[in-house]
Amino acid sequence: QLQASGGGLVEAGGSLRLSCAASGRSFSTGSTFTMGWFRQAPGKERDFVAAFRWRGRNTYYADSVKGRFTVSGDTATNTVYLQMNSLKPEDTAVYYCAADSRLIRSEYERGESYDYWGQGTQVTVSS
Q1: What is the pLDDT of residue 65?
Q2: Per-residue three-class SS string for 111-122
Q3: Rounded distance, CA 110 to CA 90, Å?
Q4: For 54-103, how does the pLDDT look when each residue is reduced to its tens digit (9 = 90+)?
Q5: Shortest CA distance to 21 belongs to which of 86, 88, 78?
Q6: SS in 3 state form for the chain?
Q7: What rounded mean pLDDT belongs to the chain?
Q8: Residue 23: pLDDT above 90?
Q9: What is the spatial distance between Cα 75 and Cα 77, in angstroms, rounded to a whole number?
């Protein structure tokens, strides 16, 4: 089970840190799970934001957030974080975390590849 939190209202240029806490499973640096962050703005399709692979602690980002967002994982708390800096109004969306243990690299950015999803957390960036 995944629990996303940390959303809120922030002014443009501000920062937020989202958390995705996993229960029922412990992640280690050898875990094959990939954790994904996606977002969906009103009237738009769900978009890939970032992915974190526990094994190797590899990170992947959508072009739109590179250099501004950082994804990381903490095995002690079984939590994946999405640090969002220099936020823009176009980052406004409901953010979701997802997980799957069987993904290959070409699947990281596809939401339909993930079996486990958390509830969304709203991020609103005012101009």
Answers
A1: 98
A2: HHHCCEECCCEE
A3: 21
A4: 999 999 999 999 999 999 999 999 999 999 999 999 999 999 999 999 99
A5: 78
A6: CEEEECCEEEECCCCEEEEEEECCCCCCCCCCCEEEEEEECCCCCEEEEEEEECHHHEEEECCCCCCCEEEEEECCCCEEEEEECCCCHHHCEEEEEEEECCCCHHHCCCHHHCCEECCCEEEEEEC
A7: 95
A8: no
A9: 5
CA 8 to chain CA centroid, nearest Å: 15
Rounded Cα distance, 122 and 104, in Å: 29
Q: Are 39 and 69 in contact (CB under 8 A)?
A: no
Residue 30: pLDDT band (50, 70, 90) is confident
